[in-house]
Design goal:
Nuclear Transport Factor 2, Chain: A; 24% helix; alpha+beta; 3 domains; 6-stranded mixed beta sheet; single chain; disordered C terminus; Glucose Permease (Domain IIA); 23 strands; 448 residues
Length: 448
């Protein structure tokens, strides 16, 4: 108290400062509160203004697009033809109803006859299921490859019919030359040198008018063949093609043949001078057979006495194909006493051939049927008076049997004039291709 009395003026000043500080604090608080309120009000006002500018009704954009689910994939089944199978059996087995299969098969008759179906042929059948998870569906078509060069495709149309498409596949061709020396047989030598069996059969047929392959082939005889090798675009082997050139050297004598094709006559083979390899008649109308009995008197193997044998016999396995020796008309096809099953063919006004002891006839061979040289007419058997399977072959001239091995056959077609000149140019080109293949796969020599 004494201090306040003595320092009254100082106390008054202190009180004043405190009062001012309180007033300043209250004012600052009020200012800050007012500022916060103002900011809040401004934010709310702004938010309200934003709400006000929104449209009163919804605005619609483009309608959303809904993609349908993908269709189930096609069902593809592959079936293989077995013994006795038909297109109908195979299509039904793959899931096709009989009525639809019948329509599909009938639609392709003009392109490919159903009876030509071979054992081992694969057929791809396509079905179209209507929903996922279903293991079958409507039949929409099938396809198959009758050869390496073509595809047959049968497809169902929108009108519930069937269309047929034949698709050709182009194959690349390569010249292949194979040669060799014969030590035991042409078959052994050719096989060892790499000549395919199908080409060897064609080679034998080319020379069958002039060469008896059972008697005329000798040790050290030679062969030389240029043949086409066909392959697909990816390089895979497809098949062997045509013989372009062939040569046999028999006992030192060369026999060369060149392939020549014309619009009128088709494919033929000629020697260097334009003379056809094809003669009026074949000396041996069978392949791979052994000459077992010649023409002339002999002791009959069944009757036991000497009797004239008016033909030649070729021993061969039962069922071996027999070929027509020349173009002509069948004048007899049936059983004929000791001959057994027998065929006679008239080739012209002078020549005829006969074939006996057959096991059976090729389908369609009957009296009056016209046949072509090299066509299969029957099969080796042992019917009639016979001791084993063989072909008894006769050549008749003016109705009389003669020795087939001594017959001098007339030559076939001979090129002349402009056609001969065309052939000469073709032969030159072919010889150039031969020169390019001068060193074929190494010549191989077979041994006994």
């Amino acid at each position: 108290m004494n201090f306040l009395k003595r320092h009254k003026s100082i106390a008054v000043q202190i009180v004043g400062v405190i009062a001012i500080a309180v007033m300043f604090g209250v004012g600052l608080t009020t200012y800050l509160n007012n500022t916060q309120v103002t900011k809040t009000s401004a934010a709310e006002k702004s938010h309200q203004e934003k709400k006000i500018v929104l449209p009163a009704s919804a605005v619609f954009g483009p309608a959303p697009v809904f993609e349908p689910p993908p269709s189930p994939p096609a069902i593809i089944r592959t079936v293989k033809a077995g013994p006795g199978d038909t297109f109908m059996k195979l299509l039904v087995k793959a899931g096709t109803d009989r009525a639809t299969a019948h329509s599909a098969i009938r639609s392709m008759r003009k392109t490919f006859h159903p009876r030509r179906l071979k054992r081992g042929q694969e057929i791809t059948v396509t079905l179209k299921p209507k929903s996922w998870g279903v293991k079958t569906g409507p039949f929409i078509g099938f396809s198959f490859n009758p050869s390496v060069e073509e595809t047959i495709k049968v497809s169902r149309t929108a009108q519930d019919r069937f269309s047929v498409e034949k698709i050709k596949r182009l194959l690349d061709r390569q010249d292949v030359r194979v040669s060799g020396s014969i030590q035991s047989s042409l078959y052994v030598a050719a096989t060892k040198a790499g000549l395919p069996a199908s080409t060897l059969v064609d080679l034998i047929r080319l020379y069958s008018w002039d060469v008896d392959f059972q008697r005329d082939i000798q040790k050290n005889d030679k062969f030389d063949v240029m043949v086409e090798r066909l392959h697909q675009k990816n390089g895979d082997f497809a098949r062997w093609g045509n013989i372009l050139y062939a040569e046999l050297v028999l006992s030192g004598k060369s026999m060369r043949l060149f392939r020549y094709e014309s619009k009128r006559h088709g494919v033929e083979y000629f020697d260097e001078r334009g003379r056809s390899a094809q003669k009026a008649l074949m000396k041996t109308p069978i392949n791979g057979a052994r000459l077992s009995s010649r023409y002339g008197k002999r002791r009959h193997p069944i009757l036991g006495y000497t009797k004239m044998h008016r033909g030649i016999d070729f021993a061969a396995p039962r069922g071996t194909p027999i070929y027509a020796a020349g173009n002509g008309v069948v004048t007899y096809a049936g059983r004929k006493g000791a001959y057994g099953k027998y065929i006679r063919i008239r080739h012209n006004g002078r020549y005829a051939t006969a074939y006996a002891h057959l096991r059976g006839f090729k389908r369609g061979i009957r009296r009056g049927r016209r046949v072509t040289q090299g066509q299969v007419i029957g099969y080796v058997g042992s019917t009639g008076r016979s001791t084993g399977p063989h072909l008894h072959y006769e050549i008749l001239v003016n109705g009389r049997q003669i020795n087939p091995l001594k017959l001098r056959l007339p030559s076939g077609r001979k090129l002349k004039g402009q056609e001969l000149r065309r052939f000469a140019k073709m032969r030159e080109r072919l010889e150039g291709r031969l020169a390019a293949r001068k060193s074929p796969s190494k010549t191989r020599v077979t041994s006994r």
